[in-house]
Amino acid sequence: MGAGASKPAPKISSDGTPIAPDRTQRSQCWEARDIYYGCLDKHDILDSIAEKDKAARVCAAEGRAFEANCAESWVTYFKKRRIAEYKKNKTLEKLKVEGAQDLR
Amino acid sequence: MKYKTVQEQRSRYHSGPFSWKAGVLFLCSGIGLIYYFRYEKARMERKRIAEATKGVGKPKVGGPFELIDQHRKPFSSEDMKGKYALVYFGFSHCPDICPEELDKMARMIDLVRASAPASAPALLPIFITCDPARDTPAVLASYLSEFHPDFIGLTGTWEQIKQVCKKYRVYFSTPDGVKPGQDYLVDHSIYFYLMDPDGDFVEAIGRQHSPEQAAAIIKAHMGDWKK
Ligand SMILES: [Cu+2]
């Protein structure tokens, strides 16, 4: 992961410690993430970690842009969060359907 | 209908067990009482939340600490006395939750300040890092300046941060001895802690609250404050 991606070097604070991504860098990362997600959706991939090979094949450019714009820890976090969000929404939908049935 | 005298006119309206004035008064006080009871109920509920943590001995959430702010000035729990504080734990290298919550916090602070009476105690927005190795004062200064000019960013040694997290019941998972250039994530609380001018915990405001709802909760607690 991260191979070939040339991340811009982080800015350095006045005491020499690297500064966290700022607002602009964050939104660039989120944008690249959403484009990558869009590609995964199109190819029916939920878990891009488990389906690593397929994701690398069908979303190569999007994946590279995602990794180029986000720290590696963020990339992993977002890939996992995508799965967690999906499961959460599924559970909510299920509860809603069950609730609707109870009312009937 | 015409009345012969003013007297007669008056007596007509005054007579009877349910004169119009009494009726209006009754209605008004009735409505007033409903509002008063509602207000009292809400106030008592807030008081219950606020008092639940006071009790005997040490407060359950919060407590004394000594850290430094983003300008390298010492900042301790004593600096919170006499003021309300909204305390948030996070870290600047956070991928998404912290930035969203800090934008919300900035909005809350502005909403509360815009409508708080002049007599109300001040409200301090405080960000305590859970990642002291990377969040030095200089890093916090540049990070927080993008959210609100009044944010107070606190950092310290790994041990100091561990202790303050413990006092605020924040799960602390940050490894000790990490290098500043390392890439990792840390756990932190997702709540805003509202602390009163005594330094006692009042209420936790969560992600489900909009800035407007949160501001209303804070203002209600501030309005209850009498000292
Ligand atoms: Cu965070």
UniProtKB/TrEMBL annotation, chain A:
Residues 1-26 are annotated as: Disordered. It is found in: Cytoplasm; Mitochondrion intermembrane space; Nucleus. GO terms for cellular component: mitochondrial intermembrane space; nucleus. InterPro entries: COA6_fun, COX6B-like, CX6/COA6-like_sf. GO terms for biological process: mitochondrial respiratory chain complex IV assembly. Keywords: Cytoplasm, Disulfide bond, Mitochondrion, Nucleus. The keyword Iron does not apply. The keyword Disulfide bond applies. Belongs to the cytochrome c oxidase subunit 6B family. This is Cytochrome c oxidase assembly factor 6.
From TrEMBL, chain B:
The lineage of its organism: Eukaryota, Fungi, Dikarya, Ascomycota, Pezizomycotina. One of its GO terms (biological process) is cell redox homeostasis. Keywords: Copper, Disulfide bond, Membrane, Metal-binding, Mitochondrion, Mitochondrion inner membrane, Transmembrane, Transmembrane helix. The keyword Membrane applies. Disulfide bonds join C94-C98. The chain crosses the membrane at residues 20-38. One of its GO terms (molecular function) is copper ion binding. Cu cation binds at C94, C98, H188. Belongs to the SCO1/2 family. It is found in: Mitochondrion inner membrane. GO terms for cellular component: mitochondrial inner membrane. It comes from Oidiodendron maius (strain Zn). It holds the Pfam family SCO1-SenC. The keyword Transmembrane helix applies. This is Thioredoxin domain-containing protein.
